[in-house]
Write a structure and sequence with these properties.
single chain; 236 residues; mainly beta; Immunoglobulin-like; 4-stranded antiparallel beta sheet; 3 helices; 13 strands; DUF974 domain protein; TRAPPC13_M; TRAPPC13_N; TRAPPC13
Length: 236
Amino acid sequence: MQTPSQAVSLELYPSTDTDDARSGGITQVESVQKIVRFDLKEEGNHVLAVNISYTETMTTQSLDTHGVVQASGGRVRTFRKLYQFIAQPCLNVRTKATELPPHEVDNRTLGPYGKTKLYRFALEAQLENVGDGIITLGMQTITLNPRPPFKSRSLNWDFDPSEAQKGNSPTLSPRDVLQIAFLVEQEHGQQDGLENLQKDMNREGRTTLGQLSLEWRGALGDRGFLTTGNLMTKKR
């Protein structure tokens, strides 16, 4: 597979258990099917080059009384097929992070009435189907992977467990837009990443919340996935 940035060798997988167990050649009117798998991660022109080499067995009629057909040799043949296609994005993602009033918790290290403020943010994302086909988002395939010391909670269709059990996954037709949201909160008592958070907020007035991961299925069941870069808050 030739992508815009590199050439990758792909492994062939059998389409059925019969193909996997097959050994030797194939006779007339028989066929062999193989599957290649490749995750598209780049936009632009792609070329799948398939090289096939085989030996064409030549047979002769035996001169004995039994008339047995025997192999007398073969010719090696090779041919190449090229399949060219353009990879385009299926989903466009736009995000916005809004700082919420902090949550105050007791902190006895600051005195008997000491309080510590924990940061809270609302992360909104707008998903637009920019492809040509219908896509279906899974019930639990849109996740926010928070960066410590943050934790996240989905405010989407899986927010209500009773609704999530119904399995009503959202479907987007071409040019449809879906709004999703997450509540991102600083986890109380979490020391991992706390120092970096304080430095980022004091120095730059903003910090990194995490990465958004999405998965979907196309009309024919083909799977797509997307992971954003690090999502930043607005500067204060």
